[in-house]
Write a structure and sequence with these properties.
The protein is mainly β. The chain has a single domain, classed as OB fold (Dihydrolipoamide Acetyltransferase, E2P) (Beta Barrel), CATH 2.40.50.240. The protein has one helix and seven strands; from the N terminus they run E-E-E-E-E-E-E-H. InterPro entries: NifT (IPR009727), NifT/FixU_barrel-like_dom_sf (IPR024044). It comes from Sinorhizobium saheli.
Length: about 70
């Protein structure tokens, strides 16, 4: 899914246009942000692509929503 990552006055946020959803990013797996997962305030976990550490924000990327294995069974 397409996700726009941007910096706000309160930190980072993610906007998902298809859902018209914007949520703060409350947890990041990697300090550089890219190539790991982020957790949104609503509980969604998104896997972000590998990008250079100095990628400028805002940026729109193709992210994958991670579903807990327990819920998928």
């Amino acid at each position: 899914m397409k996700v726009t990552i941007r910096r706000t006055g309160n930190g980072l946020s993610a906007y998902v246009p298809r859902k018209d959803l914007e949520e703060p990013i409350v947890e990041v797996e990697n300090e550089s942000l890219w190539g790991g997962f982020v957790v949104l305030a609503n509980g969604w976990r998104l896997l972000l692509p590998e990008l250079p550490k100095d990628t400028r924000l805002p940026v729109t990327v193709e992210a994958r929503k991670i579903v807990d294995e327990m819920l998928a069974k």
